[in-house]
UniProtKB/TrEMBL annotation:
<feature type="transmembrane region" description="Helical">
    <location>
        <begin position="245"/>
        <end position="269"/>
    </location>
</feature>
<keyword id="KW-0472">Membrane</keyword>
<dbReference type="Pfam" id="PF10326">
    <property type="entry name" value="7TM_GPCR_Str"/>
</dbReference>
<feature type="transmembrane region" description="Helical">
    <location>
        <begin position="201"/>
        <end position="224"/>
    </location>
</feature>
<keyword id="KW-0812">Transmembrane</keyword>
<feature type="transmembrane region" description="Helical">
    <location>
        <begin position="12"/>
        <end position="31"/>
    </location>
</feature>
<keyword id="KW-1133">Transmembrane helix</keyword>
<feature type="transmembrane region" description="Helical">
    <location>
        <begin position="43"/>
        <end position="61"/>
    </location>
</feature>
<feature type="transmembrane region" description="Helical">
    <location>
        <begin position="281"/>
        <end position="303"/>
    </location>
</feature>
<dbReference type="InterPro" id="IPR019428">
    <property type="entry name" value="7TM_GPCR_serpentine_rcpt_Str"/>
</dbReference>
<protein>
    <recommendedName>
        <fullName>Seven TM Receptor</fullName>
    </recommendedName>
</protein>
<feature type="transmembrane region" description="Helical">
    <location>
        <begin position="129"/>
        <end position="153"/>
    </location>
</feature>
<feature type="transmembrane region" description="Helical">
    <location>
        <begin position="87"/>
        <end position="108"/>
    </location>
</feature>
């Protein structure tokens, strides 16, 4: 069987490099050059950029990979330079999984913020100040934390799960499963009864994911309707920027959905159907490692002031030529 997992390290390192370059560049531009984005939303943009760097960097430690075998699914660490820290690596894999929920919940919050900025700008003040910052950072932290804890509790391996995967795991990866940081999900016991602890992750995790997408879809639909009614009250530059933020949020949500959620569904739900498979499914992690730089690239390409600023820097134009003639803060 091809050792696809050996290539994952290269994708991880590439993801860290590109995420650091693109995201720190975005932070620099937002802090020192972009004038049309200010207030709370400016901090949201920078926090999301820093989260992308942290997400990619943490992958170097966690080195997550997945494998599907019949009615079992294992999420484990390929880290070989911290072999004596099994519990820490298991914890690292759980934190890595929680990062995705953090990012998705953060997007849901941004949809709420942008919707309020259209229909009731005064309410966006709830996101300001120390208390507001604690709230809009705390919500995705809680969502990500719950997801990580749920993973650690429901996926904690037992003798039955280890024995079921032991031979296959050793054959494919040349590793002793009992000494590998891992989470194993086998929804059926030997007598075909349900293993409810494992199933609780699928149900609880599914509820958390669905909740964020519900917020995103609800706010997205309402924003689309509100933009037709409310944008007439904004100046032309502000109107254009509002539309660009809306498009950016839609695309930024679609990217991780296509890179991770859609490919992950057969991986997570496959064990329920007890198909006879023996597949290295960790390639999804390689795709996800490229998400942070893609996310930043999409945002920069859609929001025109970033494009103008970058063009001005590379073309060595005068500083005033890359600034808008009308300054407003969103």
């Amino acid at each position: 069987m091809p050792r696809f997992y050996e290539l994952s390290d290269s994708f991880t390192k590439l993801g860290v490099f590109t995420a650091s370059f693109f995201n720190f560049s975005l932070i620099y531009l937002t802090l020192f050059h972009i004038k049309q984005i200010g207030g709370t939303y400016k901090y949201m943009v920078m926090v999301l950029a820093l989260t992308g760097v942290a997400f990619s960097s943490w992958e170097l430690i966690a080195r997550p990979f997945t494998h599907n075998y019949n009615h079992a699914f294992i999420l484990f660490s390929l880290n070989t330079w911290m072999e004596n820290s099994e519990w820490f690596l298991q914890f690292s894999v759980a934190i890595y999984a929680g990062f995705y929920l953090f990012i998705l919940a953060f997007f849901a919050e941004q949809f709420i913020f942008r919707y309020l900025s259209l229909v009731d700008p005064i309410k966006t003040k709830l996101f300001g100040g120390v208390g507001g910052a604690i709230g809009w950072i705390g919500y995705p932290l809680v969502c990500g934390g719950i997801y990580s804890v749920l993973l650690m509790w429901s996926g904690d391996p037992d003798e039955y799960a280890d024995e079921y995967l032991k031979e296959t795991f050793a054959e494919v990866y040349g590793m002793d499963i009992s000494h590998t940081p891992r989470f194993i999900f086998t929804p059926y016991a030997a007598d075909d009864s349900f293993r409810w602890r494992n199933l609780s992750f699928m149900m609880g995790g599914g509820f958390l994911l669905t909740g964020q997408y519900f917020i995103i879809m609800l706010c997205g639909v309402r924003m689309h309707s509100a933009m037709r009614k409310e944008l007439g009250n904004f100046s032309v530059p502000n109107r254009r920027l509002q539309k660009q933020f809306f498009r950016a949020l839609i695309v930024q949500t679609l990217v991780p959905t296509c890179l991770f959620v859609v490919p992950a569904l057969p991986i997570l739900l496959g064990p329920l159907f007890n198909f006879e498979v023996n597949i290295q499914t960790g390639g999804i992690m390689a795709l996800l490692s490229m998400y942070p730089p893609i996310d930043t690239f999409v945002f920069v390409m859609i929001v025109s002031e970033y494009r103008k600023t970058i063009s001005g820097i590379f073309c060595r134009k005068k500083k005033n030529s890359v600034k808008s003639t009308e300054i407003f803060v969103l």
